[in-house]
């Protein structure tokens, strides 16, 4: 095939520039259907949007190359649908929440500026992006299914590195090794009571006043499902957190629960329907606000840990494993890993802004004072940061950069597997490419 499938390119297309199609939908380009894969379409505006995103990131991607990757994305989605690959609604919502929070915090600075840029509220944008996010998660899950058994041996990694042309050996910018200990803030009794009172008042409007649950969800819930009247869609057992599921499964159709507390906040739940072990519910979610006093408790706890570590009475790694609230890093002694290579070495520019600016003012070996931040799922927390190591910019070597080279070798092997999968699967679905793009030669099955 003319353009080898690239996992890195595909992921960039899937996740960079999530709102490019939203912007194009506002009239910044004239759409036409560039290609169709079963019920999935590739718009010309998508190609243009991703080309612009790549250019802004300093990458040059040809139109045909982008079309190739988008065709693979749509074929993966179509096959996922045929093979009944399911994506949980809670994963869609949590991904939406993370993307929206990132956009507000890192791209626009405030919700008001985001609304000014798009002419839409965050909730309206979420509603518009929800189908895209669900498709992307389906694609990711299908891709993982195809490549899950693929591994690379040490000899394959060495061969991959030795076969790289000299001018293709990557040059790595500054990298760091960072660890953290996280403590979540606890909600005060006063704040809990305030939220429960508010939700009970809403419940009274529904149960006694006959008001519509969905309408009240749209105006009161802070969850991404608010735009859909709180509707979370069909869920199977195990998909939702136990407190939510246990309550929802006990309700009768149309019944509204009492206030339920979960790790995500406080809910009112209404059962829409149930079929055996599957149920469909809507909810109203309110998350707590944290006072300075609420934040002082974990701050003092972390400060005490920091004092013990600095006095060499406790190792940072031990403290992280024993006391950190972050499940993703505590098992590894608090070390934050690169999500792609799983390496402990992370490029400075890949750090989240809060971590970047903290590290930028620290010396290697230092442990920060407690710093406030928001977890990926939107919880208020504090953390202390240990600046373990700093690696100067350098040309990659197999001795110093084994994890990244191994990840690149694995990526190439998976890309070839996807290439073969495309050639075998493309005839199982309807694919049509616009005549203006026929020269791309993306369906010939030739390398």
UniProtKB/TrEMBL annotation:
UniProt KW Amino-acid biosynthesis keyword: no
Protein name, as recorded: Peptidylprolyl isomerase
PROSITE patterns (UniProt xref): PPIC_PPIASE_1, PPIC_PPIASE_2
Organism this protein belongs to: Xanthocytophaga agilis
Short name of one Pfam family: Rotamase
Entry EC number(s): 5.2.1.8
Ranges where the PpiC domain occurs: 173-273, 276-372
Top EC group: isomerase
Extent of the signal sequence: 1-25
Lineage: Bacteria, Pseudomonadati, Bacteroidota, Cytophagia, Cytophagales
Annotated GO MF terms: peptidyl-prolyl cis-trans isomerase activity
Swiss-Prot/TrEMBL keywords: Isomerase, Rotamase, Signal
């Amino acid at each position: 095939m003319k353009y080898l499938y690239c996992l890195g390119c595909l992921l960039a297309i899937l996740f960079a520039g999530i709102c490019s199609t939203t912007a194009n939908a506002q009239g910044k380009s004239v759409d036409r259907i560039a290609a169709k894969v079963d019920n999935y379409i590739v718009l010309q505006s998508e190609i243009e949007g991703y080309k612009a995103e790549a250019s802004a990131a300093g990458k040059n991607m040809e139109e045909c190359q982008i079309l190739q990757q988008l065709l693979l994305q749509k074929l993966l989605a179509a096959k996922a649908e045929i093979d009944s690959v399911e994506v949980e609604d809670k994963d869609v919502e949590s991904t939406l929440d993370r993307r929206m929070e990132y956009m507000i915090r890192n791209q626009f600075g405030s919700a008001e500026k985001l609304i000014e840029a798009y002419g839409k509220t965050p909730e309206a944008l979420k509603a518009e992006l929800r189908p895209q996010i669900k498709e992307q998660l389906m694609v990711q899950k299908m891709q993982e299914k195809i490549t899950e058994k693929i591994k690379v041996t040490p000899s394959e990694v060495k061969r991959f590195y030795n076969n790289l042309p000299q001018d293709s050996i990557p040059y790595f910018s500054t990298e760091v090794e960072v660890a953290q200990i996280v403590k979540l803030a606890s909600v005060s009794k006063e704040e809990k009571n305030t939220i429960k009172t508010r939700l009970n008042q809403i419940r009274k409007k529904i149960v006694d006043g006959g008001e519509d649950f969905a309408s009240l969800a749209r105006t009161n819930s802070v969850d991404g499902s608010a735009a859909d009247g709180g509707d979370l869609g069909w869920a199977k057992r195990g998909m939702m957190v136990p407190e939510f599921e246990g309550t929802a499964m006990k309700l009768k159709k149309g019944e509204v629960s009492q206030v339920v507390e979960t790790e995500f906040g406080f809910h009112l739940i209404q059962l829409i329907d149930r079929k055996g072990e599957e149920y469909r519910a809507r909810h109203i979610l309110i998350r707590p606000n944290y006072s300075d006093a609420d934040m002082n408790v974990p701050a003092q706890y972390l400060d005490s840990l920091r004092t013990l570590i600095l006095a060499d009475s406790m190792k940072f790694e031990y403290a992280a494993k024993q006391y950190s609230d972050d499940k993703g890093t505590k098992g590894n002694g608090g070390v934050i890993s690169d999500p792609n290579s799983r390496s402990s070495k992370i490029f400075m520019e890949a750090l989240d802004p809060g971590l970047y600016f903290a590290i930028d003012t620290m010396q290697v070996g230092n442990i920060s004072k407690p710093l406030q931040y928001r977890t990926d799922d939107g919880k208020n927390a504090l953390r202390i940061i240990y600046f373990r190591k700093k690696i100067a910019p350098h040309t990659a070597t197999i001795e110093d950069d084994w994890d990244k080279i191994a990840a690149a070798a694995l990526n190439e092997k998976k890309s070839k597997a996807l290439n073969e999968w495309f050639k075998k699967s493309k005839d199982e679905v309807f694919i049509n490419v616009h005549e203006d793009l026929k020269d791309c030669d993306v369906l010939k099955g030739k390398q």
